[in-house]
Amino acid sequence: MSGGARPGAGPSGGSPNGPAAVDRSAARFLGLGAVLGFFGVLAGAFGAHSLRERLAPDLIQVFETAVRYQLVHALALLLVAVLLERRPSRAATAAGWLFVAGTIVFSGSLYALALTGWRILGAVTPLGGLCFLAGWLALALSGIGRAEV
């Protein structure tokens, strides 16, 4: 990720937090997105090849939902990284962290539910969904706040 001047940036070429902070955030979300993508594909393969015979069909569906949301939000993190590199904003940074939190809480609780059968774990899943929704709103705000008239 480059550390050069960005359009609309201050005299130092960076965001209010400085160019190095923006580069670190973009790199951090790029890395997190790639790692979550890797483990999402790994979990999908594990579910398809190792769990089909071991879990009830409804729990397989739960597991697949966890994988799907993890992969979608891994890609969203890659988008956030690109956005932060090109047009840094606090809203985009917030979106990235909300996507990370959502993945941990939403997908994590569904993985745990599917593997243990403990239905009570589904009670925390909506909190992860709220993180996802807030992340998408923050991402939208990062674009709206920078739209040119």
Written account of the structure:
The chain is mainly alpha-helical. It has one domain (19-144). It contains 4 helices and no strands. It has helices spanning 19-51, 57-86, 90-116, 125-144. The two termini are 29 Å apart.
Keywords:
single chain, 149 residues, mainly alpha, 74% helix
In N-to-C order, the SSE pattern is: HHHH
Alpha-beta content class: mainly alpha
Mean pLDDT: 88
Assembly state of the chains shown: single chain
Q: What is the global morphology?
A: elongated
Low-confidence stretches: 1-14
Q: How much β-strand is present in the residues?
A: under 5%
Number of domains: 1
What percentage of residues falls in helices of 4 or more residues?
over 70%
Sheet with most strands: none
Q: Give the tally of β-strands.
A: 0
